[in-house]
């Protein structure tokens, strides 16, 4: 039976700072990608509004055999261009970029581990929420878009796309969380306490 814990007299080797620095590099790269995504979403929303402003549903559908279906299709495109996804998605991406700056600095300096990890977890939370929001908003429109297409054989595609989209986002966010858990574990404060091996217990 183990009845004691020894305190090592040898020097305690601290965790490698490159675990935190590696996290800093990763979040820094994702932060730059978030900035590009914010710009693309903002420009995409402006381009969609400009395109829809030049479209006349009555003129486009005038020669179509089924005018009502054509107008429904144009209306679904108009709904896509007016979705808050463009503005809110761009705002989320910009927030991720701004949040990545202090997170990257704290992780790279590796001076305040607890604060750096709190910022990192906050960044992961915002990233997960934004990705699920964007995916949800897009799939909501996607379902409406397919409802406007009278092709019953392809109606299953909306459920299949939803499964893949939500599943992909979930796997991505779980991977980010798992990586941060690993960094937290590898950078935990060292200790001099040593538990004696069970294989060397003296039963006398």
Q: How would you portray this structure in words?
A:
This protein has 204 residues and is mostly helical. Helix content is 72%, strand content 2%. The chain contains six helices and two strands; from the N terminus they run E-H-H-H-H-H-H-E. Strands 1-2 form a two-stranded antiparallel ribbon. It is elongated and about 80 Å long. Mean pLDDT is 81; it is low at 5-11 and 199-204.
List keywords for this structure.
single chain; 204 residues; mainly alpha; two-stranded antiparallel ribbon; 6 helices; elongated; disordered C terminus
The backbone outline, from C-alpha atoms, is elongated
Integer-rounded radius of gyration: 26 Å
Major β-sheet annotation: 2 strands, antiparallel
Give the count of helical stretches. Answer: 6
Find the structural class using helix and strand composition: mainly alpha
The low-pLDDT segments are 5-11, 199-204
Strand count: 2
Q: Tell me which oligomeric state these chains represent.
A: single chain
- H-E string: EHHHHHHE
Distance from N terminus to C terminus (CA atoms, Å) equals: 10 Å
> Helix share of residues?
over 70%
Strand order of the largest sheet: 1-2
Instruction: Work out the strand percent.
Output: under 5%
The residue-averaged pLDDT reads 81
């Amino acid at each position: 039976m183990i009845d004691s814990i020894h305190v090592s007299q040898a020097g305690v080797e601290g965790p490698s700072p490159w675990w935190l620095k590696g996290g800093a590099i990763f979040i820094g790269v994702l932060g730059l990608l978030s900035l590009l995504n914010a710009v693309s979403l903002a420009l995409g929303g402006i381009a969609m509004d400009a395109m829809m402003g030049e479209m006349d549903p009555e003129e486009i559908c005038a020669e179509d055999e089924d005018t009502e279906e054509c107008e429904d299709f144009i209306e679904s495109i108009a709904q896509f261009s007016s979705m808050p996804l463009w503005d809110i998605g761009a705002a989320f991406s910009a927030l991720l970029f701004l949040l990545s700056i202090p997170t990257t600095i704290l992780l790279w300096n590796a001076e305040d581990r607890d604060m750096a990890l709190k910022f990192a977890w906050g960044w992961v939370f915002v990233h997960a929420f934004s990705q699920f929001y964007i995916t949800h908003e897009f799939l909501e429109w996607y379902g409406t878009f397919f409802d406007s297409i009278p092709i019953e054989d392809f109606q299953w595609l909306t459920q299949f796309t939803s499964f893949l989209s939500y599943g992909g986002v979930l796997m991505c966010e779980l991977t980010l969380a798992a990586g941060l858990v690993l960094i937290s574990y590898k950078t935990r404060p060292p200790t001099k306490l040593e538990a004696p091996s069970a294989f060397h217990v003296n039963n006398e």
